Amino acid sequence: MKAALISFVLLPLLLIALTTITGGFRTARTLAASIAGEVLGLFLYAAYKQVKVVSILSGKASGSIMYVGTAAPRNLVKGLLEFAAVGMLIGLVVLAGHRILNRVRSA
Questions:
Q1: What's the pTM?
Q2: Over the stretch 84-102, which tens digit does the pLDDT of each residue have?
């Protein structure tokens, strides 16, 4: 659970923070950083899970493994698009929060 939270929420926020430090809150750059962070988080989480599976199979860690099956390429593309949409949603929430904060400060 903690690895998923880091991969799917904190990594996009970290990339947004790094992007806004250098270029400010520009909409396109913020959304691109959020989407890139979400997709990168997906691959990092998959790599982490693969390492966990290998350690369980080799006997170095305890646990159980459930076989889910392989996904067709269409399902992989669909999954990437869904994660990109979640990344865009995170970026939009950050941009909305920034806009509200600016309006409160200027009032």
A1: 0.82
A2: 999 999 999 999 999 999 9
| Dist. CA 10–CA 54, nearest whole Å | 25
* Residue 59 DSSP code: T
Q: What ranges make up the beta strands (E) of 15-104? A: none
**How far, in whole angstroms, is CA 48 from its chain's centroid?**
14
Cβ contact 91:28 at 8 Å: no
Q: Taking a C-beta distance cutoff of 8 angstroms, is the pair 16, 34 a contact? A: yes
- 50 vs 45, 54, 65, 89, CA distance in Å? 9, 6, 11, 27
Q: How far is CA 12 from CA 22, 47, 56, 71, 89, in A?
A: 16, 17, 29, 25, 11
